[in-house]
């Protein structure tokens, strides 16, 4: 003898197949719900793979001059040979001739046309200063200093870009300048330190975003023209931009879409059942 019938606790009572009646409108509604769920899934799939980006701007409390910033450059001077031009770094601490750098970090390579290509890393202090190309010898006063900037970036190298937050880490790439004889090129580069943190991978990189303005002019000293030069004058902003990349956990992503799937069908079934009952009630004339 059965003491207790579990069927008395059943809240998931299934209607008989003989009672349930499929309809064209119900089938169309089911396909619409499936289509909606598939669109929701693929709409969030890209964000799940790339992660969410959070932005933050704050004032950097580190005083300038205590850190060094890596500068990667690939610049070609077309009309000056490697022995006819020097690259120097200058700030309030003094001047550094780049020829003192290790050949493993920086290279000066002669081009087939007689020019010189500067490629590699140099290091500047995190303070206002400049690095510049200067011809050697007074006989070069009437030279032009045509050049091409193939690449110029500051800080760590970013190998990807944020689609929703584009970054200007290579604004001077592919820039070419050619002017008349004796004119100096002056680039004013304004830099903003950027911190990119991947919360899931636990990695942080520090590239610098920058903008620039350019002018060219004939420089004079005591009434005499100076050789044409190329100046990159650096101004560092006290602000820091921080980008935090967060990737949603796989189980959270799946759970969210299961909830969307179940909720969509539950709500549609509720409204469809209510509409069906209202239709039968009106059709039966109970409100007449």
> Could you tell me how far the N terminus lies from the C terminus, measured between alpha carbons in angstroms?
51 Å
Helix tally? 2
Strand count, sense and barrel status of the largest sheet are: 13 strands, mixed
Strand content: 35-45%
Mean pLDDT: 79
Name the poorly predicted regions: none
Q: By helix and strand content, what is the structural category?
A: alpha+beta
Radius of gyration: 34 Å
Q: Helix content range of the residues, please?
A: 10-25%
Shape summary: elongated
Chart the SSEs and their pairings.
Elements: H1 24-50, E1 52-59, E2 68-77, E3 85-91, E4 94-97, E5 106-110, E6 116-125, E7 129-135, E8 147-155, E9 175-177, E10 183-198, E11 203-205, E12 207-218, E13 220-221, E14 224-225, E15 230-246, H2 250-284
Parallel strand pairs: 10-15
Antiparallel strand pairs: 1-15, 2-6, 2-8, 3-4, 3-7, 5-6, 7-15, 8-9, 8-12, 10-11, 10-12, 13-14
Helix pairs in contact: 1-2
Question: Would you mind describing this structure in some detail?
Answer:
By secondary structure, the chain is an alpha+beta fold. It is built from two helices and 15 strands. The protein has helices spanning 24-50, 250-284, and strands spanning 52-59, 68-77, 85-91, 94-97, 106-110, 116-125, 129-135, 147-155, 175-177, 183-198, 203-205, 207-218, 220-221, 224-225, 230-246. Strands 1, 2, 3, 4, 5, 6, 7, 8, 9, 10, 11, 12 and 15 form a 13-stranded mixed β-sheet that branches. A hairpin with a 5-residue loop joins β5 (106-110) and β6 (116-125). α1 packs antiparallel against α2. The longest helix is centred in the C-terminal third of the chain and has 35 residues, at 250-284. The protein is elongated, with a radius of gyration of 34 Å. The two termini are 51 Å apart. 16% of the residues are buried.
């Amino acid at each position: 003898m059965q003491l207790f019938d579990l069927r008395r606790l059943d809240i998931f009572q299934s209607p008989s197949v003989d009672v349930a009646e499929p309809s064209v409108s119900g089938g169309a509604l089911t396909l619409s719900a499936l289509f909606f769920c598939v669109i929701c899934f693929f709409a969030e799939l890209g964000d799940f793979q790339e992660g969410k980006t959070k932005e933050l701007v704050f004032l950097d409390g580190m005083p300038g001059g205590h850190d060094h910033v890596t500068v990667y450059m690939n610049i070609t001077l077309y009309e000056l040979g490697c022995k006819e031009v020097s690259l120097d770094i200058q700030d309030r601490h003094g001047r550094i001739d780049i020829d003192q750098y290790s050949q493993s970090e920086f290279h000066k390579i002669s081009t087939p046309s007689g020019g010189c290509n500067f490629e590699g890393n140099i290091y500047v202090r995190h303070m206002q200063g400049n690095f510049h190309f200067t011809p050697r010898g007074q006989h070069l006063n009437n030279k032009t200093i045509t050049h091409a900037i193939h690449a110029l970036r500051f800080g760590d190298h970013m190998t990807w870009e944020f689609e929703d937050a584009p970054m200007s880490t290579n604004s001077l790439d592919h820039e070419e300048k050619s002017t008349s004889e004796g004119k100096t090129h002056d680039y004013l580069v304004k830099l903003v330190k950027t911190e990119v943190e991947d919360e899931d991978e636990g990695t942080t990189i520090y590239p610098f975003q920058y903008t620039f303005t350019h002018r060219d002019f004939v420089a004079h000293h005591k009434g005499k023209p100076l050789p044409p030069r190329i100046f990159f004058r650096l101004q560092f902003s006290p602000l820091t931009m921080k980008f935090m990349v967060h990737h949603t956990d796989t189980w959270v992503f799946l759970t969210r879409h299961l909830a969307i799937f179940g909720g969509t069908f539950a709500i549609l079934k509720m409204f469809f059942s209510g509409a069906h009952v209202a239709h039968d009630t009106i059709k039966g004339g109970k409100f007449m």
